[in-house]
Amino acid sequence: MPDESAPRNIVEKFFSSVNNVLEAPVIWVREKVIEPNQKQSAWYHQKFRRVPTIDQCYTDDIVCITEANLQFKRDKLVDSEILSILRERFEDCTLYEAPDHLEKCTPLMKQYEEAATNWFIKYGDLGAYGAAKAAYMKQKHRMIWERRHGPVGSGIKNN
Question: What membrane topology is annotated for this entry (predicted)?
Answer without folding.
Answer: Peripheral membrane protein
